[in-house]
Amino acid sequence: MTIKLYCFGESGNAYKAALALELSGLAWEPVYVDFFNGEARSEAYLNTVNEMGEVPVMVDGDLKLTQSGVIQQYVADKSGKFGGRNDQERYEILRWVLWDNHKLSSQNGITRFLLNFIPEDKRPTEAIAFLQGRLQAAYKVLEGHLEGRDWIVGDAITNADISCCGYLFYPEPYGFDRKAWPNIDRWLANIEATPGWKHPYDLMPGHPSDRGL
Amino acid sequence: MTIKLYCFGESGNAYKAALALELSGLAWEPVYVDFFNGEARSEAYLNTVNEMGEVPVMVDGDLKLTQSGVIQQYVADKSGKFGGRNDQERYEILRWVLWDNHKLSSQNGITRFLLNFIPEDKRPTEAIAFLQGRLQAAYKVLEGHLEGRDWIVGDAITNADISCCGYLFYPEPYGFDRKAWPNIDRWLANIEATPGWKHPYDLMPGHPSDRGL
């Protein structure tokens, strides 16, 4: 049975799930969600796919899971990859997945959206500046942690890396300058060099150019 | 060995860890962090307690864990409580813990902070309004999920409830009106009625009145 993943290319949260599936070697296929025309907020989607109105959603036979971190955990449980080798690593991976959801991807996602995917005259400039300030603090934490480390936890790629990199490969400008953070830049290159790695726009259907952007 | 929890009363994220510890029956004691005088951002704290500059931090013998959701998971693993009865419940609990960290507590925490704990003339009013708009969408998701349910997952209190309620008992105004959301109100009353439940200001040291607020 091929795993299905509801997703779209612009979503870094969906990318975390798609990248975990792809790198694990599990058989999966994308189901495109037309987010920018409101599909994820439609009554049909809310009632039958995800009450949270979000991607990603994974369906494996009778099992449906939502939230990128949950799908990543399922991939680890099913494939034996990316989940850590012992309890200490498992807690440490969960720590960085939660931190990412709380402090990094959550604010990267909305900031990139506001700066690139809504009309310029509707951008809440003060809110964007506020979010960018919070993000600088988050990048600083990640940069410090990666000093002397190739990976966030242990000595190989785990779900901690796959979570934290969710929005960091996208080309749209939103205030993240990879070259300004040498440890983050080196760590992202390690992820890019992982066999089977793909850029979000090569891994999932949907691209800003579809909407003339 | 008594578990130590670095925390302070105003932190809803610390409350999630403290409440899980308290309701589990594990022996624990708080270690007060003087957040409002910068302790969590001090070099000493960053270097020896938590590089993320945050509470809560839990120490149990040689083991140190940070992030409320990780500590909650540890309490579940150690006590056998709040972690779900099977894989399906475990994934569903993690789903709501992640959603809470991404969409609910993260934005409740910063919004309450900006509206109550910094000088009125320094408040970023547009950013606050933006965050409050996002929070209304989050309350709506939770309100809908709790329709016909006493608890977020299954038929008893779990870490999903203990996570999502993190900021919802605080008295400081920040745009959450409990009575406007009848299902959330009923669910919070279920939590309050749980044997051993305590309000955050009764469970952890530190209160706004310490700072003359």
TrEMBL record, chains A, B:
The keyword Transmembrane helix does not apply. Residues 86-213 form the GST C-terminal domain. Residues 1-83 form the GST N-terminal domain. The keyword Transferase applies. Keywords: Transferase. One of its GO terms (molecular function) is transferase activity. InterPro entries: Glutathione-S-Trfase_C-like (IPR010987), Glutathione-S-Trfase_C_sf (IPR036282), Glutathione_S-Trfase (IPR040079), Glutathione_S-Trfase_N (IPR004045), GST_C (IPR004046), Thioredoxin-like_sf (IPR036249). It comes from the Bacteria. Belongs to the GST superfamily. This is Glutathione S-transferase. It comes from Cognatishimia maritima. The lineage of its organism: Bacteria, Pseudomonadati, Pseudomonadota, Alphaproteobacteria, Rhodobacterales.
